[in-house]
């Protein structure tokens, strides 16, 4: 890559990361372009070379967030050492923990509840996890891990609605919020109503496994 193109790529990446931090902290409306530029080290001219507006910049952050979501989801879907429910648990917990250690995901989480981007939730992280959740639920049914007659779409919808509801109950990106525990309950309660007695007995005895795809 020519040096000029590489500099432009780095400048754009720095602006997106700085914008993500500002959006995660303040939301879209209150985010300051001046602070974004100050923390990125970029000039206003450089920003408007890459982005037409503040909204355009926010959409770039959302796109980046989608890539980060997809990476987490793919990692767990492909981790076949665990059963489908265990992989679903790991995926949900990693997504929750990313709210504290991945500023882009934290920004995506904040932006999709802003009025300007409320429709984005159906197209981005929520949709990515929903498709993966249904895929894992289908695998669980094939393995006999659900009770007979469970509606998979209702199960995935119940988990997804619970996770989405957490957005409105607390600022999950704030320090000290136990996101993992909150997200775990969004899965555990539906599982207690729908998983097979055999699976539930094993889970109650052993708890959730500690295995993680990053350890491979």
UniProtKB/TrEMBL annotation:
Gene3D superfamilies with a match to the protein in the record: Tetracycline Repressor, domain 2
Pfam families named among the record's database cross-references: TetR_N
Entry-linked SUPFAM superfamilies: Homeodomain-like, Tetracyclin repressor-like, C-terminal domain
Keyword Nucleotide-binding (UniProt): no
Top-level taxonomic group: Bacteria
Residue ranges for the DNA-binding region feature of this UniProt entry: 32-51
HTH tetR-type domain: residues covered: 9-69
Keywords: DNA-binding, Transcription, Transcription regulation
Gene Ontology MF, one: transcription cis-regulatory region binding
PANTHER family: HTH-TYPE TRANSCRIPTIONAL REGULATOR BETI, HTH-TYPE TRANSCRIPTIONAL REGULATOR RUTR
UniProt name for this protein: TetR family transcriptional regulator
Lineage, top ranks: Bacteria, Bacillati, Actinomycetota, Actinomycetes, Mycobacteriales
């Amino acid at each position: 890559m020519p040096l000029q193109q590489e500099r432009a790529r780095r400048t754009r990446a720095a602006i997106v990361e700085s914008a993500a931090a500002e959006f995660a902290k303040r939301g879209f409306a209150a985010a300051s372009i001046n602070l974004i530029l100050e923390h990125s080290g970029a000039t206003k001219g450089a920003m408007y070379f890459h982005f037409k507006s503040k909204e355009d910049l926010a959409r770039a952050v959302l796109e980046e967030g989608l890539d980060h979501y997809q990476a987490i989801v793919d990692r767990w879907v492909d981790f076949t050492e665990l059963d489908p429910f265990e992989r679903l648990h790991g995926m949900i917990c990693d997504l929750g923990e990313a709210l504290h250690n991945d500023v882009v995901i934290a920004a995506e989480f904040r932006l999709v509840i802003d009025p300007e981007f409320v429709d984005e939730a159906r197209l981005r992280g929520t949709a990515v996890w929903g498709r993966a959740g249904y895929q894992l639920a289908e695998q669980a049914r094939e393995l006999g891990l659900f009770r007979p007659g469970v509606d998979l779409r209702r199960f995935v919808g119940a988990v997804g609605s619970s996770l989405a509801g957490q957005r409105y109950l607390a600022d999950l990106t704030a320090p000290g919020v136990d996101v993992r525990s909150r997200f775990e309950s969004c899965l555990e309660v539906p599982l207690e109503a729908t998983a097979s007695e055999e699976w539930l007995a094993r889970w109650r005895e052993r708890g959730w496994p500690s295995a993680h795809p990053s350890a491979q």
